[in-house]
Amino acid sequence: MGTIILSGTVVLVVLGFGNHLYWLAAVAVLFLYVRYGRGASSTPTSGAAAPPPATYRAYRDRRDTQAKWERRYRRERPLESRRQAREKSR
Fold first, then answer.
1. Distances in Å between the alpha carbon of 25 and those of 3, 8, 22, 40, 45?
2. Do 2 and 39 meet the contact criterion of CB atoms below 8 Å apart?
3. What is the pLDDT of residues 34-84, one digit of tens each?
4. Which end of the chain offers a freer environment for a tag, N or C, measured as fewer CB atoms within 10 Å?
5. How far apart are CA 38 and CA 81, in angstroms?
6. Burial class (CB in 10 A: 0-12, 13-18, 19+), 48
């Protein structure tokens, strides 16, 4: 798959000498391949789940920390937390 992407990029660059939009297309193809292709790193994003903890103690610590943040959120934003609870119960 990487060979096809690189070959297509080379073709777009060669065609780009006549029309500069092909160079932009080549850059876009390379960007998308690096970002979402096979070579992309698997770094978790903000919404991604973390790997399971190694010990039960680590699990409890993470669970307690999450509960503390959820309580703080509900305390600081009561209207928003009520709205979310209503949407969740539907």
1. 17, 10, 5, 20, 27
2. yes
3. 888 775 555 555 666 778 888 999 999 999 999 999 999 999 999 998 898
4. C
5. 39
6. exposed
**Tokens describing residue 12:** 């777009």
Cβ–Cβ < 8 Å for 22, 15: yes
Look-up of token digits 């503390």: 68
The contacts of residue 73 (CB under 8 Å, 6+ apart) are 81
Residue with tokens 């305390």: 75
Q: Residue 25, exposed/middle/buried by CB under 10 A (0-12, 13-18, 19+)?
A: middle
Angle, CA of 62, 72 and 84, to the nearest 5° = 95
pTM of the complete model beyond 0.90: no
